[in-house]
Amino acid sequence: MILDAAVYLSAGVAALATLLMIFQKNPVKAAMLMLTALLATAGMYLAFSAQLLAVLQVIIYGGAIMTLFIVALSVTPQAWKDKPVPGRAVRVLGLAAAAVLLTELLQVSTVLRAASAAPGFSETGTLAIAMNLFGRFAFQFELLSLVILASIVGAVALASRRTAP
Amino acid sequence: MEHMNYAASAFSVPLLLLLAALAALLLPLFIRALRGTQGLMALGAALAALTFFRLAPQVEISLFNGAIALNPASAYLWLFTLGVLAAVLALSVYRPPAGEENAGEYYFLLLLSALGLMALIAAGDLFTAFIALELLSLPLYALAGIRRSKPGLEAAYKYFMLGALGSAFTVLGIAVLNALYPALTFDALGQGTPGPLALAGFLLVISGFAFKTALVPFHMWVPDAYEGAPTQISAFMGAAVKAGGVVLLWRLFSLFDGGPVREIFWWLAAITAVGANLAALAQTGLKRLLAYSSVAHAGYLAVAFFGGRQGFEAVLFYLPVYAMATIGAFAVALVLEKDERGPQIEDLAGLARTRPWLAAAMAAFMFSLAGVPPLAGFFAKFYAFAGAVTAGYTGLVVIAVIMSAVSIYYYLRVTVAMYMKPPAADTHAEPAGLAGAVIALMAAGVILAGIFSRPLLAAAVGAARWF
After folding, report:
1. Comparing C-alpha atoms, which of B374, B238, B212 is closest to residue B297?
2. Domain containing residue B48
3. B303-351: per-residue pLDDT in tens?
4. Radius of gyration over alpha carbons of chain B, in Å?
5. Based on the structure, what is the number of domains in chain B?
6. Hey, of A158, A160, A162, which one would you mutate to test binding to chain B, going by the most B CBs within 10 A of its CB?
7. Residues of chain A contacting B142 with CB distance shorter than 8 Å
8. ipTM
């Protein structure tokens, strides 16, 4: 009961924030509304007891990707002003694309309603991923850590300010 | 037991390099006296690794659930990697390409890139190979622009953008292949005839690696990257990155007996040999000339693939021979370098009179790259083309030989400038020092591997059986 309420609440927040984001003119406010939508989606996952998915949603989408958005916005100030008014043809095309997506979503959701929930859904997750990450793919995982370390050092070397003339 | 001992001793090599990389990055931050010695730390580690390197027993040792496969072929190529790394480090100690404040980062990134190449060579599956490729490439993007000058940053930017595109192709292809072959090991990929989806995946992966190997039309980044990057890094790119790409392309190529993948390789090899050699004719800068020459040699290596097993023996012989000539030529460019873009060909005018030994070594490198007997480059090309002719790809070899004859023109232009033109007014007389030692070693290698090609060829033949 309370879970159902949580699902509907977070889904409603996500939908509302997305709608507001579409009609928002200020890019930073739009980004914040998108962040709200992403976090609300994470809440929905949590209510469905997909904890790992919820955490990943917060870390990857809410954390990494939103940071990227904000950084991109802050380094391209001209994008703030540059807003050509779309022509009629573009608007019609956009609406048509939206209509196609909406029908597709409705169809998928009816199909999903008919399908029964996968058994053991909530058990897949952290443990299985950890087993793979630290077991079968341990070497690749460690190699990736070197890749990330090299990227960080490279980025710092390129971006740091020169101390000597 | 014996094999595990070997695996442990073989693995101590990359671990030593990693330790040296971390030491070069971190220790000088805390110990003031160590500042400026990062290059010596890295060079010492590379030389120690080279000295204590043990050749593999005649078995394949699979480690980390098949992620890494150690065998004589990987040992041969690891030794090659260490040699290239040591030469590039010596050149970097001779003339530091990065400022004092970036020295630690420079050596850290260079050593990590070499580690990536080692992992790529020994990778047992495509997934590991991709991560290793990234470890090889990412530090190089930063190294290309480490001087933060305009040409350097342009080189880094172009290299990064096109490299990222290549990586995107590769990872997309791997995703497709993963759906069809869950294991992604090279053995598994060779099972059965691939369907259209698998072919699409293979072609995506191949085009991604063709970016790194710089086969035409995936070579657009090469001239600018080689010209704008520090000359030491250009040498590393030419010798090491190419080797990694070629080995991976061979492993993919050898999965197919015929069909569209071979046809595409045929075209790649032919277009590369023609396009790169024609473009090289118009170059005036020495580094740009060497860049196009490196693209052309990637084409010859792709021709060698068609010789099958014999062709891969030729590839393993070709790689060190080509690397010695290229590193040597870049070292000469480094000695004569006045500005970042490196010397122009006319800057070499009269070098035979002002610095006869340097000119003689450069002539040896140029003739070896052109494939003039009795230098090693001739035998490398001979074996590479002979295999393809035996396998019945005469048409392709005819194209490659004609274009190789064209290449003599531009290699000869360098030699003519050195021997037949009067010296320019301001001859740049920088003492060669450590670079001189590298040049002498490489020249000796190019000449000796030509006159006594048996030992190196025997080593290549022994190693080639394992891939």
Report:
1. B238
2. 2-464
3. 999 988 888 999 999 999 999 999 999 999 999 888 877 888 888 888 8
4. 21
5. 1
6. A158
7. 150, 153-155, 157-158
8. 0.89
